[in-house]
Specification:
The chain has helices at residues 3-13, 21-25, 38-53, 66-70, 74-80, 83-98, 119-132, 151-172, 180-185, 200-206; strands at 60-64, 108-113, 139-145, 194-198. It is mainly alpha-helical and 211 residues long. It has a two-stranded parallel ribbon. A two-stranded parallel sheet has the order 2-3. Helix 6 (83-98) packs across helix 7 (119-132).
Length: 211
């Protein structure tokens, strides 16, 4: 059974058309009736993570210090465009580097959720990197679609949301426990995920706003 089949089957079993991180986390939309049914929530989450586990993926992510980005000079912010664009570049680069150890004909297929605000920028960045980067021979096609049609985007949504929450938890410096989904994901932390955190200082150095 393929990942697509496994993920789709999990959603079908729970009568959910598609997973959406914020709706699931706050028991909204398709999950509105699950608010007091923790066993069902956990059963569903375990099944989704298991569908990801069989792929043995290498987690790749880029995280930006949003407050630090807002503190950059106007010129630096213009060069960066916005944190989203910076993350797109960082993730695509990391994925291309990860592919370097694979047969030369293998390339990275970049799949991005359609967005009126972002699609144009994504296409420009992908085109630029495919034409000018030193790893351009590893950059394959760009696919733009709705997340409801692509289990892979739903899985990425799950990973990104829980990574964000775990980073927030650690930043608070408190003893609050990690969220349940993150415990299921911890196996992905070994031997090492490709997760890059860009601090305010690093952003300033990259975009020429100081040293």
């Amino acid at each position: 059974m393929t990942f697509f089949d496994s993920w789709t089957a999990v959603n079908a079993t729970e009568r959910v058309s598609a997973y959406h991180a914020r709706e699931y986390a706050h028991s909204r939309g398709a999950f509105s009736a699950w608010k007091t049914d923790e066993p069902r929530r956990r059963r569903y989450m375990r099944a989704l993570v298991q569908a990801i586990r069989v792929l043995r993926p290498t987690p790749i992510a880029a995280v930006v210090d949003a407050e630090g980005a807002r503190g950059l000079s106007r010129a630096a912010q213009t060069r960066m465009r916005d944190p989203y664009c910076h993350c797109v570049q960082a993730v695509l680069r990391a994925a291309a580097i990860e592919a370097m150890d694979r047969p030369r004909q293998e390339t990275v297929r970049m799949v991005v959720a359609k967005s009126k605000e972002r699609t144009g920028d994504v296409i420009k960045l992908w085109t630029l990197m495919r034409e000018t980067s030193d790893y351009r021979h590893r950059i394959g096609e760009l696919v733009l679609d709705d997340a409801k049609n692509l289990p892979g985007l739903q899985a990425a949504d799950l990973w990104a949301y829980e990574l964000q929450k775990e980073i927030e938890r650690r930043g608070e410096g408190r003893s609050r426990r990690s969220r349940y989904p993150w415990h299921l994901f911890e196996w992905l932390m070994y031997p090492a995920p490709m997760v890059r955190y860009f601090s305010a200082r690093e952003l300033a150095a990259i975009y020429g706003d100081g040293t």
